[in-house]
Structures are given as structure tokens and as C-alpha cells.
Amino acid sequence: TTTTTTTTTTTxxxxxxxxxxxSTKPKPAMMMSKKATMGLQQQRHRAGRIAATNHGKEVAxxxxxxxxxxxxxxxxxxxxxxMSRRYFDDLDVYAxxxxxxxxxGSAGLTCAYExxxxxxxxxxxxxxxxxxxxxxxxxxxxxSAMVVRKPAHHFLNEIGVQYEDEGDYVVVPHAAxxxxxxxxxxxxxxxxxxxxxxxxxxxxxxxxxxxPRVAGVxxxxxxxxxxxHETQSCMDPNVLESKVVVASTxxxxxxxxxxxxxxxxxxxxxxxxxxxxxxxxAAEDAVVRTTSEVVDGLVVCGMEIAEVTGAPRMGPTFGAxxxxxxxxxxxxxxxxxxxxxxxxKMTSVAMSTTGGDTPPxxxxxxxxxxxxxxxxxxxxxxxx
Length: 384
Hints:
The protein is α/β, with parallel strands linked by helices and about 375 residues long. The chain contains 14 helices and eleven strands. Strands 1, 2, 6, 7, 8, 9, 10 and 11 form an eight-stranded mixed beta sheet that branches. It has a three-stranded antiparallel beta sheet with strand order 3-5-4. Helix 4 packs across helix 11. The chain is globular, with a radius of gyration of 35 Å.
């Protein structure tokens, strides 16, 4: 009975207390003025900024230097104007060029690089792909290594590319080492590359003698050449005049051998038989030997010349591409009256013809030195 009475009493007291709390109304909150509210918000924002700054300092001090990295400001119109102004300024400058190289594969890049050694020479290079380099980013069948038969290794010494010496030939661990070096040196020496641009036709004029002469190229953006003409009624091109054009668009393909095929259609070359079946030993010598000025004003080199002469294809060896490009540069310079100057600049060609095997000294033209040859163990290290 006592326990029951105590429990009942406790329950009644709790119930009374809860009822009292429910019946008690909170006092109305004091209304803050608008100015006071804004002041409080500003204090909170200020406190948040200080906390964030302190946190950033703590993190930066800990280890990561990039948390405090900030780019300088720029406006979108500045980016647009910076690109478009320079692009169209280049079109204006190179509307009259000394040499236009069509195709930025291994032969075309080599030709442009050699010509870039000559001062006061405007050299433009046109490439239909976004990335220059053609098929020289890889060796054969999508494999990495590039095989170069001697004596073309002297050219690799000149541009500073390492390789493994296998006796009669050398092996570059990755073809991209050569192609990236050529692109960097040619453009660094002043060659102007118009990539994502296709050559649709040639400018051909009749000389006083009555003979035709190639005097420039007809260009368009590659996407227009490949897709635009079939969907639009009028997509007119642009023109670059040039004293000499070098054709190095490779063997037959969608836009391959485009210059010599155009000459055939115009009746300026009798026949374009195409390259013969593969024979490495015969092919490389034949390509270099037949690199020539096929029509006045048009020098043809690389595998494009094989389409005219019927020389064998060489497959994944690249020495002839470099030497053919060098020869094309020499022929172009000779046509411009710069033969002596060009010959003096071709240090690796001089070594190849004299049989020398010592890498050239630092070049006064491109300010590079030959890199040491790779040992076999170095070459077998994985590349990334």
C-alpha cells in the first residue's frame, strides 16, 4: 500500500509539472532592427573568411603547395582575340611564302627543319591532321620503336635523339622522341605550321617559256575539305602563293600523294604507277635518289615520290624519310639561289657522305648538342 501511494504521488507531481510547462507561454522575442541584422551577418561572414584563411594556411603549411595556387585573371574576349589575331596575322604574312611544305610527316618535317636554318626565309608547313607527324609517331604495326639505317643516324645526333646502336642500324626507343624533336626544332626556328588545314589544289601558272610552274597551294580547313563540300553549295578555299612547293603527303591514301595525283589529272606527269611491293634495301636508296623537282616549282619527296617513280615501299624504316626531306630542302634552296648557304648548314649530310661517325658539335643554328647514344640496358628500360 505504501509503495502504491508513493508511485501515485510521484505520477501526480510529474503530470502537474508537465501541465504547468505546457501552459507557460514563451516570452515574445525582441525584434532586431534591419541594421542590426545586417551587422550580425557581416560579422558571421567575416568570421567565416578568417576561419577559411586560417585553415588554408594550416593546410599549405602542412605539405601541399597547390592549395594557395591562383591564376592571374583573364577575360574570355582576351583569349578569343589573342588566338584569332595571331592566326589571321600569320595568314597575312604567309600569303606570300618562299617555301610551302605540304604534309608534316617525317620527310616534310625534316625538310622544314633544314630550311629553317636559313635566315630570312619564310617557310610555311600545311598539315591536314590536327597533330603533325604523320605516321612517324610509331614504328611498324603500332609498335613504339623506330629503326633508322645508317648513315641516317647522324641526323639523329644532330637533333639530339638517343638510340641504341645495333651496328648497321640504330633503334630509337620510341618514334615520338624523333617526331616531337623535329616539330619543336622546326617551329622553334620560325617555320609556320598551319595544321588542320588541307591542300585542295595547286596554283599553276604558265611561264614565259610556255612551261607550267607551280606557284602556290589552294587551302581549306580540313573539316571543310573532308566533309563540307558534300553538304554545302559553296565552300570556297584560300590561297598561299609560294616560290617553291614541297610535296610530302606520303603514299596513296584519302589525301595521300595528293600533289602528284593532281599533276596526273592535269596531264603534267604522264603516269603515277604507285609504289611497288616492299623491299627495304632497294626502297630507301631509290626514294632518296629520285627525290626531285618533278614539275617546275614542285619538289616531291618521301613516299610521295615513290607514287611517281614506282619505287618499292620500305615499311617501318625511316632513314630515307629524313634524308629525302633533307634533299628536298637542298633542291628548294637551290631553286631560290640559296644552295651554298643550305649546303653549309647540313652538317649531318656532310658527315653521312664522308663516312664520319663522331656526333657533330653544338650547332650555331639550333644551339643543340648531340646526346650520348643509349646503351642496350638503357634502351630496354620501360618508357612512358
